[in-house]
Amino acid sequence: MDLFELCKKVPKVELHAHLNGSLSEKTLTTLDVPQHLLEGYQIINNLAVTTPEKLNECFKLFKIAHDATASVNSIYVATKHVIEEFYKDNVIYLELRTTPRQESNMTKEEYIAAVVRAIEESKDFITVKLILSIDRRHSMEVSKNALNIILEMHEMYPDIIKGIDLCGDPSQGTFHENLFIEARNSGLKITLHCGEIKNDQEVLQMLKFKPDRIGHGTCIHPNYEGSDELWKLYKSSSIPTECCLTSNVLCGTTSTYSKHHTREWLQDELPFCINTDDKGVFNTSASEELLHAIENLNLPKTFLIDHSLSAIEYAFASEKEKMKIKEFLMDWKKQNQGLFNETVSK
Ligand code: 6MZ
């Protein structure tokens, strides 16, 4: 079995996937996206793929996906598609994140309920949890209103809505820490996009806040535009980091896969997991991300299954659900030991 086949076969855990960034071209077509928007998506997608340093370009793509999911039915259909695509890639545990949006004929509550409905309908074949995002570009007032709705919906769907995220264009906006303190006090887990670009002061504030996980963590280590002080603090907190290789390479925040900052996590044996970020925008999959990791970061084949076993530890599901998935993964590992012993042909 070649290495990519093995990456596909392994049961996987995905913890950092933005819903609207995960829409494949096929999904956008199904959603009746007007032809000119779809063409725009393809053009910018190609630009992003062939030209690095495109963090700004990728943020334009989200507008196209947002136009395609501007109704209750379209966000519901989009969620179904995204879940199915992860499932077909052998992802057994998925945490989707999305920013609740109000549109002319949809409230934020209706948006969340539609996503939850799609998740509930998938529960027989894949475990999916929802993280609701606050966009760092939004004002305190808009974010506070979003948080109130998120807390209300969390009370209605406590088994599905598990966490809250801070995301959005890292070159804009701010981290409204008070809102995240309130979310934490209401029982939500916290993940923050942290240090995706250099911003020492904010990284310091975020690390001191001690979220349950951070996203990216690019500019923390001194070799990657961070500092000794930040790295020391990060190491002492040992917060699991959601690494997104292709996203960072295509956005130009990392020069190549083999120079990705995950190397420092491996070197210092710090907790991390590998993720897709926006599989539609970056034209990737959970299996491809694992392949890049194995091929470029000098990892053994057993990393594939051991990655799922460690990532599930960092998940926001209940301890009981995590234990069940862990047992499944350990059984799978035992039964498929041979796959990791045989010589891999590329
Ligand atoms: C920061 C990102 C992101 O929420 O509409 N998003 N935020 N850094 C990134 N790195 C590339 N990729 C995606 O999904 C799209 C939204 O996710 C955030 C952005 O705010 C984007 O608008 P949802 O489902």
TrEMBL record:
Its cofactor is Zn(2+). Signal peptide: none annotated. InterPro entries: A_deaminase_dom, Ado/ade_deaminase, Metal_Hydrolase. Keywords: Hydrolase, Metal-binding, Nucleotide metabolism, Zinc. Residues 11-330 form the Adenosine deaminase domain. GO terms for biological process: adenosine catabolic process; inosine biosynthetic process; nucleotide metabolic process. GO terms for molecular function: adenosine deaminase activity; metal ion binding. Pfam families: A_deaminase. It catalyses: N(6)-methyl-AMP + H2O + H(+) = IMP + methylamine. The keyword Phosphoprotein does not apply. Belongs to the metallo-dependent hydrolases superfamily. Adenosine and AMP deaminases family. This is Adenosine deaminase domain-containing protein.
